[in-house]
Amino acid sequence: MKNVPYQTVFVELPDIEPLAKRIGAAPTGTRSDGVTPLYTVPIIQDHATGAVVSESAAIAAYLDKAYPSSGATLIPTGTKSLQLAFRDAVSAHFSAFRGFMIQGISPNMNDRTVALLKTRLSEQGIDYDAVFASEDKEKVWEKGMAGFSKIDEWFEGNEGPFVMGSEPCFSDAVLGAFLRYCRAAFGKDSKEWRNIVSQNGGKWVRYLENFAPYETIL
Amino acid sequence: MKNVPYQTVFVELPDIEPLAKRIGAAPTGTRSDGVTPLYTVPIIQDHATGAVVSESAAIAAYLDKAYPSSGATLIPTGTKSLQLAFRDAVSAHFSAFRGFMIQGISPNMNDRTVALLKTRLSEQGIDYDAVFASEDKEKVWEKGMAGFSKIDEWFEGNEGPFVMGSEPCFSDAVLGAFLRYCRAAFGKDSKEWRNIVSQNGGKWVRYLENFAPYETIL
Fold it and tell me: Which InterPro entries does UniProt cross-reference here (chains A, B) (predicted)?
């Protein structure tokens, strides 16, 4: 999106902390005990400047500052609080899918990543094996679908396919990432993804297609 | 905020629908049955143009269009989706206070307004008399306080006291309204309001003070 050359390095969940420490990436929060530093991806390491930045909004702000005239402006002046609120609101709507996503993505994860995920969830009081056994499965799914419709309403009357119009911004990266996560977790041919595809007149597939120019072939 | 002369007419809950119909204000949604039109305040009736507009974001858009060079621009170009997401996120954080606010504000309401409120809540499956009897009272309050800290994080590093900087926008009207609602519901001298006042280094009282130039004396 910033039209800057880059290479993606995928990192298994248990390898994030040692990698972050090795390259000097700061923790982005604390674990559920409120004390132990929490290391997360994405992290950016800019070999051109030596900068190492973690946490997606901080990365967006860094890229806008380091490459002001390249690609889209991710956080246009004055919109930072709005972009963070957008991330918060989208994250809340997608939280309904957490159980579905864990179930969907686990078969594609390495055992040691699943093991750490289980530990982290149990630290938050969430029983990994029970999270999806609930009888409210259909109700939770409906809630997630209602979230999509709510997000769809925000776009009503927009000039252009993106949150702020014709150019993508940080909030588009957030929403696009959640949608890609759903697609990857459920699988393109799954009942769940087909359900999302049919939601809001096919809006979400069209929305993801707008990112094609910015996507690397994986 | 738009520096346009106005007069506020306060309306009791049961009087909103007949008033809206009389002046030709559209419903803003449906009741919990998903069918019956729902009429809400705010509604604006502009005697200069004859326009009648309901729903706060629509009112903001109307005012920007009808009075483009007067006062603040409530929804700067390209920010509409972001402003709606902001309202959604703030509303979700404040929802933790619903029980507290109902309890706090009820003694100041007329009987027929309380009666309608009870009916509407019961239609949503919420028992008005039990909503506050829960044992999780302290936990719910903590959740609300955590919401304030989350909102505070959005403001970090902002240039100016408002969401978008030195000028207030629609999102400020939303956040300011929720804060005023809390203050009115709990009472300025209540334990609850003092707790909010002490949160985030006194941020929320300072934030409300920024609205002083825009406030009518009630």
Answer: Glutathione-S-Trfase_C_sf, Glutathione_S-Trfase_N, GST_UstS-like_C, Thioredoxin-like_sf
